């Protein structure tokens, strides 16, 4: 109703396509196209090959992919545990303390990721906690960076939750632990899985803090992609990027299946 | 007594956050005022502002600060304009597959930023589509486009990557606009542009402010795009921190830059939170709160 005439509507569609396609659709497509190529000096890539994917299947890239998935899983679980715990506990605090806890858990978003990496490097390169050079420091960094998102989405879900359920459960004599385990957490399950999906995706693509702290035997995929493009192997880097995107999408898809199944309950 | 017990439940996650986030940050601040350390020991001598004086006097720091602010401001303006246009079209012009586009934007946000720079290399790089088309068409030895290793390349990548961050809150705000108002304005003879300006935009202004300030913070702290651009003359604050700490091993200098970066970023993030809380108030204003009944 905003655009009365057909031609004007067409013109706007055209404007949309001209802006949207080259900026958003094309980047993802060219990465996929480049991952199957050996050269790109004309309008289209040349030298179709599967060699880049064969290289991923064994050696360092596969190791990097597994490293990334393990890191992302561990960091997501840690972030979800801490974020959910804090959100649940904060609900029972006074309004002022609750705001302080909320701000504390939001703070990692406001601090640059590179600085989070630097701070872990400074703190854990000296006793009492010597973690520099271990996989744990990478997992801790990722967990710190994604906890805010888990905390935020669980807090938002808790605010929307109808208190009548837990009140009736408590009125029927259920203990607090029982209410939490059988009433609250099942009701929260959709937002918990959404939060874990977000955390996983963010951790899979994390580069800034990782560049500061990764040890040589725990190299996540984004660092491997940077190493490939930095030495000029753009096409191998593209194949690694496709592997990164595909793994993220598959895991997100799997998580959204849990979500739909949970919503049937 | 019960309150104490309840507060105890909040203690473990806060303590964990303190150990892996607040304590390291405090050490960064401490290190930034501790000159002449041998390595990373935070104990030698008393605190002094000498490291700040040294770093602030470096031209590399001033250049990085100027670069960071200019690129972030430019990218924010670009993302706001582009996001506004795209969101307006998606929300108010009937478009086949509009919902699928919303999905696509969500997927786009799940990918890391440096992929955009990688993609731009294949689009506008010395090899790649745009220059390839040019050389195919004209027979020239090389194409005309060679801007990816300049600040413009970083700017283009950041605008591309961060536009969806503006579009999402805008689309949410547009879905709240009362279509009756639009129809009333149209039937009274208002032109589409006037409807956008006087009816839709005031409604979307808080979301625009929120999206814009979020993008500004994210651009200030962007590292992956700048790293992948790989240009020597495009150094931003996060890049400077990385260079100082990892390549030069100058932890005190890196910590000084980090403190400056944190201050900038936290201040802007506080601004963003105020903008967000404004939108929340304006949207639920007058509606009684159900929780806590």
UniProtKB/TrEMBL annotation, chain A:
Keywords: Cell inner membrane, Cell membrane, Membrane, Transmembrane, Transmembrane helix, Transport. The chain crosses the membrane at residues 12-42, 62-88, 100-124, 136-158, 187-214, 234-255. PANTHER family: INNER MEMBRANE ABC TRANSPORTER PERMEASE PROTEIN YDCV. Coiled coil: none annotated. GO terms for biological process: transmembrane transport. One of its GO terms (cellular component) is plasma membrane. This is ABC transporter permease subunit. It is found in: Cell inner membrane; Cell membrane. Its main location: membrane.
């Amino acid at each position: 109703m905003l655009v009365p005439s057909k031609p004007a509507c067409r013109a706007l569609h055209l404007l949309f396509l001209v802006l949207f396609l080259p900026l958003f659709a094309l980047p993802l497509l060219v990465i996929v196209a480049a991952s199957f190529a050996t050269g790109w000096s004309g309008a289209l890539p040349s030298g179709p090959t599967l060699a880049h994917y064969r290289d991923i299947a064994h050696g360092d890239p596969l190791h990097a992919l597994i490293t990334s998935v393990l890191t992302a899983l561990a960091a997501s679980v840690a972030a979800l545990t801490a974020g959910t715990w804090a959100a649940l506990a904060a609900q029972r605090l006074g309004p002022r303390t609750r705001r302080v806890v909320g701000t504390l858990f939001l703070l990692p978003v406001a601090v640059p990721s590179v600085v989070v990496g630097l701070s872990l490097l400074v703190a854990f390169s000296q006793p009492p906690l010597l973690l520099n050079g271990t996989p744990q420091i990478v997992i801790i960094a990722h967990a710190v960076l994604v906890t805010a998102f888990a905390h935020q989405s669980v807090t938002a879900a808790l605010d929307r939750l109808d208190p009548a359920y837990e009140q009736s459960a408590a009125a029927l004599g259920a203990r607090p632990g029982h209410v939490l385990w059988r009433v609250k957490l099942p009701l929260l399950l959709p937002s918990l899985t959404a939060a874990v999906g977000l955390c996983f995706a963010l951790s899979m693509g994390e580069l800034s803090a990782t560049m500061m702290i990764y040890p040589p035997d725990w190299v996540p995929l984004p660092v491997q992609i940077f190493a490939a493009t930095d030495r000029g192997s753009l096409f191998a880097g593209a194949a690694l990027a496709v592997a990164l995107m595909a793994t993220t999408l598959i895991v997100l898809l799997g998580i959204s299946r849990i979500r739909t199944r949970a919503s049937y309950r | 007594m019960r309150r104490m017990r309840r507060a105890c439940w909040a203690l473990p996650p806060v303590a964990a956050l303190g150990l892996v986030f607040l304590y390291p940050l405090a050490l960064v601040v401490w290190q930034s005022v501790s000159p002449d350390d041998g390595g990373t020991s935070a104990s030698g001598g008393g605190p002094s502002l000498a490291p700040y004086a040294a770093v602030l006097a470096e031209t590399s720091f001033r250049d990085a600060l100027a670069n960071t602010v200019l690129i972030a401001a430019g990218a924010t303006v670009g993302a706001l304009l582009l996001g506004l246009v795209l969101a307006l079209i998606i929300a108010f012009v009937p478009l086949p597959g509009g919902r699928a586009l919303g999905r696509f934007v969500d997927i786009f946000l799940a990918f890391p930023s440096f992929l955009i720079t990688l993609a731009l290399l294949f689009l506008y790089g010395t090899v790649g589509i745009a220059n390839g088309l040019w050389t195919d068409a004209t027979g020239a030895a090389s194409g005309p486009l060679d801007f990816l290793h300049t600040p413009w390349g970083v700017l283009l990548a950041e605008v591309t990557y961060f536009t969806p961050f503006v579009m999402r809150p805008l689309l949410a705000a547009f879905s709240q606009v009362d279509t009756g108002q639009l129809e009333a304005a149209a039937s009274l003879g208002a032109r589409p542009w006037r409807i956008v300006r006087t009816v839709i935009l005031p409604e979307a202004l808080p979301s625009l402010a929120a999206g814009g300030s979020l993008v500004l913070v994210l651009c200030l702290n962007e590292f992956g795009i700048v790293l992948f651009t790989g240009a020597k003359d495009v150094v931003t604050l996060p890049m400077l921190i990385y260079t100082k700490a990892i390549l030069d091993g100058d932890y005190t200098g890196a910590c000084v830059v980090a403190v400056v970066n944190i201050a900038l970023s936290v201040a802007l993030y506080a601004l963003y939170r105020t903008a967000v809380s404004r939108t929340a108030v304006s949207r639920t204003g007058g509606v009684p709160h159900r929780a806590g009944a």
